[in-house]
Amino acid sequence: xxxxxxxxxxxxxxxxxxxxxxxxxxxxxxxxxxxxxxxxxxxxxxxxxxxxxxxxxxxxxxxxxxxxxxxxxxxxxxxxxxxxxxxxxxxxxxxxxxxxxxxxxxxxxxxxxxxxxxxxxxxxxxxxxxxxxxxxxxxxxxxxxxxxxxxxxxxxxxxxxxxxxxxxxxxxxxxxxxxxxxxxxxxxxxxxxxxxxxxxxxxxxxxxxxxxxxxxxxxxxxxxxxxxxxxxxxxxxxxxxxxxxxxxxxxxxxxxxxxxxxxxxxxxxxxxxxxxxxxxxxxxxxxxxxxxxxxxxxxxxxxxxxxxxxxxxxxxxxxxxxxxxxxxxxxxxxxxxxxxxxxxxxxxxxxxxxxxxxxxxxxxxxxxxxxxxxxxxxxxxxxxxxxxxxxxxxxxxxxxxxxxx
Length: 405
Description:
This protein has helices spanning about 10-30, 50-60, 65-70, 70-90, 105-115, 135-140, 160-180, 200-215, 230-235, 250-255, 270-275, 320-335, 360-375, 390-405; strands at about 5-10, 30-35, 100-105, 125-130, 145-150, 190-195, 220-225, 245, 280, 285-290, 305, 310-315, 340-345, 380-385. By secondary structure, it is of the alpha/beta class.
């Protein structure tokens, strides 16, 4: 087994003793370390392998400049940018195999942002005394495959309680780095497929997944609720997939209007930029999920469907549908690989069926008409006279995928 290396990220000006203890423990378990110091107010030499000066220089600044600045947000962004560039370069050059961070709230926010610059499957562990604070854990993780270790005790002083935490963290990260782990991608070229899905199109997703698997493809599913589909875009950009079945791209419209399933500005773009084939359908695109605390008065009069006591889907207006169609076309037209759009004419999800309050197929056709008007003529739209959850639609979509994968 080749020698493995863990990148250790911490602020040594406030957590020096604790970080050096963790470093020594990791090395005692047979993994080399590279210690990165992301201190923002450090003075004097750092015992780290990668000093604060190197970090801020990589971020396009200098220690003198950030020490003179009172703009904390600006300083933080410089350090994050520099640390991310260094970490990415180390990984690309094969000089590190995993990363562990140590911090409170600011240190955790910075270290986890650096971790998210690294590809999916790189071991990432954040030891944080603030992991359980409301709202922070989701900010730490974001779309990253980051494991959070809540230290419970403050990372300050080497009490036996904190040593116990750091010992377990060292064992965890060395286990992830040294263990026999299945590679994230497919072993066969061209066989790794990403699939978006939601509960209201689960039958279709399951049928398509099984059909592709029967043909030898390896399918990885993503919940298209705003975070999973953001992560999928990142993973496509990192080259983990060779094709996409995008059943539920509703995050495009949710981003346009700032709703709960907002999947970010890059939604529906990575596959096109990578030039890999994509089959796109429309689950949830004709519905929206504004936060109830931010409802406009007119939303209360919209046709709605309650998925459960926590989630309500509202029907988009025809004007909103046309706006979303134009954004779809703009993104899809830039694709450098083959694209098929497969559209169910009898409803775009299980929510979207005759008898349900938000079912309005005539309004959906206005979206398709606008999409046709805006799309490049060589991009095919296939219409299927079925609901998305009916077997006939799943079969049509599967056939479209097999044609271009």
